[in-house]
Amino acid sequence: MYLFQITNTTINYVAIGLMIFIILFSIGMVFFFLLSRQRITKADLEVRDTKIKAQEDVLEATLLTQEKERHRIARELHDEISAKLNVISLNTNLLTDTTLNQDDRDLLLDRIQNATAKTLENARRLAHDLLPPVLERFGLCQALTELVDSIHNDQLKINFKCDWDESTLTSDQQLHTYRIVQELFNNSLKYSQSNQIHLSLTTSDVRKMVYQDNGIGFQETTGIGLGTSNINSRVSILQGSMALETSINQGVLYTFEFPTNP
């Protein structure tokens, strides 16, 4: 009888201990779940913040690009077109002078014609810079061909290849790609002192674009300016990637990759 009581007491102690263990284990699991969820939430927030920061950087670079374009257009309108129109207006007013002889009239008419021709040329160039007509009518490859032809000369040889299928690209995608190439050419012409440029646009699993010149290059840490920021922002908009290889006196090599179905 005494042994039976001891056994029951032991069983009770074991049961109580087991219940306490289960309760403590359950509490521990709850805390572990809450802590894990907190860590996951924190990681998700960090990823979200990183994406937001990247989007903000793209937006800032895009706004800088737009502001740069506005200033350039305003300068073009003021310095080139507005100035020429003032010349035309002034010389036209002088023609109303009844005391002018025929030679003076011919001289004024010649000035008006020259100023008008230059104004039309500047207006066409400005319109072309805003939206190249060839790009809209014939697509990216033809527009780049025209751009290359306008730059290529005896002092600068350009090797160009384009086999992208424009029918799979939206007009915005074509325009952003065109602006990237335009910015690359501008950088080479202004800073690189190169005499050879290679540009190829090919397609496999991804759309690939390679741009290379044999100029003076630059240190990557010091060569990031507004132009490169403009390129980065457009690459981000196209959901692509960019790799840059350059060093002093070694030229530049840009490699771009874009998804075939962004």
Summarize the structure.
With 262 residues, the protein is an alpha+beta fold.
Structure report:
This protein is α+β, with helices and mostly antiparallel strands and 262 residues long. 66% of the residues lie in helices and 14% in strands. It is built from six helices and five strands, in the order ααααβαββαββ. It has helices at 2-94, 102-130, 133-138, 140-151, 171-192, 226-237, and strands at residues 157-162, 196-203, 206-213, 241-246, 252-259. The chain has a five-stranded mixed beta sheet, with helices on one face. A hairpin with a 5-residue loop joins strand 4 (241-246) and strand 5. Helix 4 packs parallel to helix 5 (171-192). The longest helix is centred in the first third of the chain and has 93 residues, at 2-94. The model has no long low-confidence stretch (mean pLDDT 81).
What is the overall shape? elongated
Q: Which blocks of ≥5 consecutive residues have pLDDT under 50?
A: none
The main pleated sheet reads as: 5 strands, mixed
The Cα radius of gyration reads 34 Å
Percentage of residues in strands: 5-15%
Task: Quote the average pLDDT.
Answer: 81
Structural class: alpha+beta
Order of helices and strands: HHHHEHEEHEE
How are the strands ordered across the major sheet? Answer: 1-2-3-5-4
Distance between the termini: 83 Å
Number of strands: 5
Number of helices: 6
- Name the helicity range: 55-70%
